[in-house]
Amino acid sequence: MRWYGPALVFAKYVPSEECKGTLPEGYVITWTAVGLGLVVGIGMLLLMFLLPYLLAPRNPSKEKATTYECGMEPAPHVWSQLNVRYYIFAILFLIFDVEAVFLFPWVVVFLGNKIAFYSMLIFLAVLFSGIVYAWRKGVLQWSR
Fold first, then answer.
1. How far is the C-alpha of 90 from the C-alpha of 134, rounded, in Å?
2. Do residues 116 and 110 lie in contact, with contact meaning Cβ atoms separated by under 8 Å?
3. Over the stretch 26-40, which tens digit does the pLDDT of each residue have?
4. pLDDT for 64-83, tens place per residue?
5. Packing angle of the helix pair 114-137, 84-109 (nearest 10 deg)
6. Using CA atoms, how far apart are residues 42 and 112, in angstroms rounded to an integer?
7. Which of 58, 59, 92, 125 has the highest CB neighbour count under 10 A?
8. Cα(107)–Cα(120) distance, rounded to whole angstroms?
9. Sign of torsion, CA 83 85 90 94?
10. What backbone phi and psi angles, to 5 degrees, belong to 8?
């Protein structure tokens, strides 16, 4: 196994004496494009952070520094309790959303593979049992 640029080559390639010490053909061109893209990307990132800092107006005032609460004066030190149900609902949404994102490419790649098919069925069964468990516990109901 040898390392040639951005890819591993698994063939048993032994270069001749006249080729030893030289780079493979196209190596410099490939890495030059990668390096140039990296430099341009970092330059654009720095430019996007620097331009607003240089061009933004600076008029600080006490009123601008206060928090905004729907046009009303902010109430000091008010404690409010948030329902945990909202967070659980959001996490369940993320779990099933990510599952759907992984399901579509899986169908394309493993269309004829029986082992992959059955492993995905097991995965879907675990997810389905999780949603049934959450449903029976009443997590998906907004009010009790």
1. 13
2. yes
3. 777 788 889 999 999
4. 777 776 767 766 666 777 77
5. 170
6. 43
7. 92
8. 10
9. positive
10. -90, 135
| Residue tagged 């990307």 (tokens) | 41
Could you tell me the two tokens for 34? 């990668």
Count how many residues are written for the chain: 144
Written as six digits, the tokens of 139 are 């997590």
Q: How many CB atoms lie within 10 A of CB 50?
A: 10
pTM: 0.39
State both tokens at 52. Answer: 């607003």
Tokens describing residue 69: 């609460």
Specify burial of residue 47 (Cβ count, 10 A radius: 0-12, 13-18, 19+): exposed
Separation of alpha carbons 94 and 90, rounded Å: 6
Beta bridge partners of 132: none
